[in-house]
TrEMBL record:
This is FAS1 domain-containing protein. Residues 423-440 have a biased composition (Low complexity). PANTHER family: FI19380P1, PERIOSTIN-RELATED. SUPFAM superfamilies: FAS1 domain. It comes from Rhizophagus irregularis (strain DAOM 197198w) (Glomus intraradices). The chain crosses the membrane at residues 368-394. The keyword Transmembrane applies. Keywords: Membrane, Transmembrane, Transmembrane helix.
Length: 456
């Protein structure tokens, strides 16, 4: 596989000869800057050195005073990337952190901001004081149980192969993979087949188009509690299928606007407000992280999936907002608040109407013929009525099913979750096959306005 499509064979050969000559006469030197040390490293960073020849602006940064910490991609790391020089420059800036951090300087987990600045959309650029005109996007740096450190962003992660290559203006850590640039929360959900149901629910007009609500607050930060298809299938209350109006408030409770809550920021308890201003609590217990309320809670089973101006945490249970109570009988109701002069009582839910009692019918043994004739006539007439009624119900059901098919696994039964279409896009400007979590990363370049919703 070609290292990079925009590099010609001759440029690689020339750079290799230059590097070989320099490597013979010099070794890594703490008095030399980051760029000179990369060139002097020789074959270990051959691909990176060749790439740097095409992006002089980034080379200028590596030669500047700094200091910087550079997570330099190895030769093998470049085999999974196919990008233009401009895109490569953005990617490398995302691997460059202001400040000099040796291995010993990193805590167990941290979220340093990189040199990659992602300008927000026009809606976020109106702040007069410049508070919303773009900021360095963070990466996750985490010490590994077996020793060493790893870095993560979104659905990609990398291990540090070589640490503490000190230069005059910083330090180099060589990594085995390249991190992808941060995507929006919706793009991150759509990138993995595990989140099909949640992505489609958030995008559905039938359920309030929560994806638009996420986009409105994305510039000021957002935390998403992500649900896999399996979790929705196994833990979502079955009553939702009977009352689809519950989907919006329940999934709104999994969206925390204007706050980016990383797992490392929760020492004991952290409270936040969800999209509908309801309280949600993060707690740490015996090293495990939980989120929820007095009604339901979930364990965070995969933390800190970095997104553009936000973070996703994957949880193992569907959370029910505190203002929704699902009774054992399967009837969702709004609970009455406790008596208090400061609380306005809400009207109790209306009781379900009673089923009509059957009317007793007496049979007479002296009118058997009349009874048999009446029964046959009733069967025929009732059959015609049932056929007509079935046709009307079937027609109405099909119409409703077309509107909701594939959006929620309980709408049409429990067996449709694996039959949902997979028309999702990566929306990245470059293709990326690096994934340590066995995610499927499609690489089509469809416009975001053509995101798949519902059935075709």
């Amino acid at each position: 596989m070609m290292i990079l499509k925009f590099l010609t064979k001759i440029s690689v050969i020339i750079f290799f000869l230059q590097t070989l000559l320099i490597s013979i006469i010099t070794a890594q030197d703490v008095t030399k800057n980051l760029y000179d040390n990369i060139v002097a490293d020789g074959p270990q960073l051959l691909a990176l050195g060749a790439v740097l020849n095409t992006i002089p602006k980034f080379v200028t940064t590596l030669k500047s005073v700094g200091p910087y910490t550079f997570f330099a991609p190895s030769n093998n790391a470049f085999e999974s990337i196919n990008a233009t020089p401009d895109e490569i420059e953005q990617i490398l800036n995302y691997h460059l952190i202001p400040g000099k951090f040796l291995l010993k300087d990193f805590p167990s987990i941290s979220y340093p901001k990189s040199m990659f600045v992602m300008a927000p959309p026009a809606t976020g650029a109106k702040e007069a004081k410049g508070a919303n005109v773009g900021t360095g996007q963070p990466i996750v740096v985490e010490k590994l149980p077996a020793g060493g450190i790893g870095i993560r962003s979104g659905l990609t992660s990398a291990n540090v192969l070589v640490v503490d290559q000190v230069a005059s203006n910083g330090v180099i850590h060589i990594v085995d993979k390249i991190l992808e640039l941060p995507k929006t929360p919706m793009q991150t959900l759509l990138q993995s087949d595990r989140f099909k149901s949640m992505a489609k629910i958030l995008q559905s007009e039938n359920y309030g188009n929560l994806a638009d609500e996420i986009a409105k607050v994305n510039d000021v930060g957002v935390t998403i509690l992500a649900l896999t298809d399996e979790v929705i299938f196994n833990s979502a209350p079955k009553e939702i299928a009977k009352n689809l109006s519950l989907i919006n408030p329940i999934f709104s409770y999994h969206i925390i606007p204007k706050q980016i809550i990383y797992s490392g920021s929760v020492e004991n308890v952290v409270t936040a407000k969800t999209l509908k201003d309801e309280i949600i609590t993060f707690t740490r217990d015996n090293g495990e992280l939980y989120v929820g309320n007095a009604i339901t809670k979930a364990k965070i089973i995969q933390a800190d999936l970095i997104t553009y101006n936000g973070v996703l945490h994957v949880i193992n249970n569907v959370l029910i907002p505190p203002n929704i109570q699902i009774t054992p009988e399967g009837n969702p109701t709004v609970p009455l608040p406790s008596p208090s002069p400061s609380v306005i009582s809400t009207k109790p839910p209306s009781s379900p109407s009673e089923s009509p009692k059957p009317i007793p019918v007496e049979n007479s043994s002296s009118n058997v013929g009349i009874i048999v004739a009446s029964a046959l006539g009733g069967i025929v007439g009732g059959g015609l009525i049932m056929i007509g009624g079935f046709f009307l119900i079937y027609k109405k059901y099909i119409k409703k099913a077309k509107n909701n098919q594939g959006l929620f696994p309980y709408t049409l039964g429990h067996n449709n979750i694996n039959s949902q279409p997979s028309h999702y896009s990566n929306y990245s400007n470059y293709s990326h096959t690096n994934s340590n979590d066995n995610y499927s990363v499609p690489t089509t370049n469809r416009d975001i306005r053509s995101l798949y919703i519902g059935s075709e």
